[in-house]
């Protein structure tokens, strides 16, 4: 039965591997029995790792070329392999590729199809490599692309934030601590805080990319190979800085994926904070921001509702990204060297986190670009809640040379008075103030009121509108310049 079927193309022979109980399609030589249906189901990763096809083909092309150059396979075999691989790439891209679960994963699917296309030469491609170094290489290439994509998306969000910050460099709003009005700030200043966070995220992504960029290919199963391969050639053909130094480490390391997820988790954290502010600010209680209809949803029961669902989902999806990080840490924990099949579980969380993050960044960038800020309402809110009490205390220190603690106490009494009168500090009369601190002069009114307050915050990194304008221009240069990829 097996000899007769062996003459058929590999794929056809495999289709019923599990049900007919025939020899394994992949390791037929050693096996007398095909996999049980459940074995095939738990073992197959093709539904997930098919996404590695571009990377798998690129790595195979580099490997075949190197093998020919080193005289390990013939030039004509290498050319046939390359032509076949390119055809396969086209088939997969056009969704015309017959993916087969019996062939387990993307590596075996491509190799089997290559055999159908180019015949025996295909069997030479796997010389001096193993799926262990192959998958490690493919996955690094994929994560490297994901990091580059992440950098582009973070930069786009920074650009949107910087543009809004420039426009609202002087717009007043309450600054909060404990979500209680603390001191007035400008909206531009607030938005630029997120630009800094995302800048650190980009720097972490670059850092991760640098460490990732070593090539496992040629480590073979775990111990290296007896063939005279040129690992430097394959590494540089694939854009790696150098080959991984230790073959055991090369096939067993997934740090790069864990680091990527750690970067992703922190990006998701930052996005969730901005998302939460959008949720708060678009509520009726704050009324600071209005999202366009196109970025909100209605309620099926309450006609008045415009819910900030996209922001809420960005807030929630952070949990999913953290989950991916925890999953991979747990998969890798305690694994002995070198490769173990456990590691096949590495891709799904990474793919899921990457897709989630892409979507969240796209949604957030649109929300930031399209949000309408109600700057009048924000300004009015900035004037409430005695947000300039610190300015008053500082003035008492500067003008009357009171010790800060004494100034704090005097200001507290003035706040209490204003509270009783149900007015702002700037609405108290000079004589009312003097009843509490006789030294106070009319000069004090120059520091009261949120506009005066923010204008006085000229210290480096402070919220004064002139500072914010400068900071926005600086941010443009620091983060949106052309040579960003080289920044450490
Ligand atoms: N699909 C496998 C994975 O993703 C490829 C490596 C399989 N290696 C092995 N020795 N079974 O990890």
How would you describe this structure to a colleague?
A hairpin with a 2-residue loop joins β1 and β2 (180-186). This protein has 21 helices and six strands. It is mainly α. A two-stranded antiparallel sheet has the order 1-2. Bound molecules: arginine (ARG). Arginine binds next to α9.
Describe the structure in brief.
By secondary structure, the protein is mainly alpha-helical.
Which secondary-structure class do the elements indicate? mainly alpha
Proportion in helices? 55-70%
Rg, alpha carbons: 31 Å
Number of helices: 21
What portion of the residues fall into strands of 2 or more residues? under 5%
Number of strands: 6
Series of H and E elements: HHHHHHHHHEEHEHEHHEHHEHHHHHH
> How far is the first residue's CA from the last residue's CA?
62 Å
Bound molecules: arginine
The average pLDDT score comes to 92
Assign an overall shape.
elongated
Low-confidence blocks of residues: 1-22, 484-488
Features:
488 residues; mainly alpha; two-stranded parallel sheet; 60% helix; elongated; binds arginine
Layout of secondary structure:
Layout: H1 2-6, H2 10-14, H3 17-20, H4 37-43, H5 46-49, H6 53-69, H7 75-93, H8 106-118, H9 131-167, E1 172-177, E2 180-186, H10 187-212, E3 214-215, H11 231-237, E4 242-243, H12 247-252, H13 255-281, E5 289-290, H14 309-332, H15 347-370, E6 372-373, H16 375-383, H17 389-400, H18 404-421, H19 430-436, H20 450-456, H21 465-480
Parallel strand pairs: 3-4
Antiparallel strand pairs: 1-2, 5-6
Helix pairs in contact: 6-7, 6-9, 6-11, 7-8, 9-10, 9-15, 9-21, 10-13, 10-21, 13-14, 13-15, 14-15, 17-18
The site of arginine has 10 residues, from helix 9.
